[in-house]
Design brief:
About 35% of the residues lie in helices and about 15% in strands. The protein is an alpha/beta fold. The chain is globular, with a radius of gyration of 22 Å. The chain starts with a helix and ends in a 6-residue tail after the last helix. Bound molecules: zinc ion.
């Protein structure tokens, strides 16, 4: 959404609310956030009632947007600045909101991204798999198993999407377990020569290994797609300096989402829809 259109919806609180409401009840089948009964009824202007469990609730109860009590115009601005990758500190200054409020708002957007992207189709065809390490001190041991660093496992479908996940370790059973869950059997999986991948062929995949010691990637045997994502993610994470270990998986999912939608002109609308249609588990 360009700024001119944005200006129009952010002009009045009522308009901003209508914008979100339009997405909220898009399917027209209003569902109870407590018992998932379909067909709740509106009893007053802003209140709904579930005939199933008698729960009375507001339009945004149970959605991610409902997790933070700020105005609808403030929500629109938060989304816009998040879309534009403005830092939380800067956003707080620009919006006249407290820094913790903006931090929470941004985190709620990430939670909505995670909730919305939980179930995705298996990757298939030609797939690259690789691990990378994030955070920690630069000093000391580097590379695989480096102290204080968080290992992340990534899979990328060539000409498709990337999926990344924080892993407890890079042992064979961990990585293979994830590959089995995320990639369709029979796919071709490209990896480097790391031994954890050695059993891929026994899990029903065709496995091709890259030899990094050779100067040039031979034919199709490369993992450049994933390496592209790692540098994309690392470059952006510098901006979030000092992300805690607990929050890191959410930042990582944000980057996965941004990378997969880097050609999407309507990131703002996608995020707005996520905020009101995904079910927040923190009721
Ligand atoms: Zn109910």
């Amino acid at each position: 959404m360009d700024l001119i259109t944005f200006q129009d919806i952010v002009f009045k609180e009522e308009k901003a609310k209508i914008f979100f409401l339009k997405y909220r009840w898009k399917t027209r089948r209003k569902i109870c956030p407590r018992c998932e009964h379909v067909g709740v009824v509106r009893i007053r202007r802003e209140r709904l009632l579930c005939p199933g469990c008698r729960y009375e609730f507001g339009d945004f109860t149970g959605s991610h947007l409902g997790l933070l009590r700020i105005g609808f115009r403030e929500w629109l601005w938060l989304l816009k600045l998040f879309e534009l990758e403005v830092s939380a500190r800067k956003a707080a200054r620009e919006l006249g909101l407290s820094y913790p409020t903006v931090l929470k708002g941004f985190q709620v957007i990430r939670l909505a991204i995670v909730a919305q992207n939980r179930d995705y189709p298996l990757l298939t065809g030609e797939v690259e798999a690789d691990e990378a390490y994030f955070g920690g001190r630069r000093k000391g041991k580097r590379g695989r198993g480096a102290a204080g660093k968080v290992p992340v496992f990534g899979i990328l479908e060539r000409a498709g999407k990337v999926r990344v996940e924080v892993v407890p370790n890079v042992k064979a059973e961990t990585l293979l377990g994830l590959a089995v869950k995320k990639v369709r059997r029979g796919s071709i999986v490209y990896t480097d020569k790391y031994q954890s991948y050695d059993s891929l062929m026994f899990c029903g995949f065709r496995h091709l290994k890259i030899d990094h010691s050779q100067r040039f990637a031979s034919g199709k045997v490369y993992i450049n797609g994933l390496e592209g994502f790692w540098s994309y993610a690392k470059e952006r994470l510098i901006k979030f300096h000092g992300v805690s270990k607990e929050k890191f998986p959410f930042y990582l999912k944000e980057l996965e989402f941004r990378y997969n939608r880097r050609k999407d002109q309507n990131l703002f609308l996608t995020l707005a829809e996520y905020l009101v249609t995904s079910v927040a588990k923190l009721l």
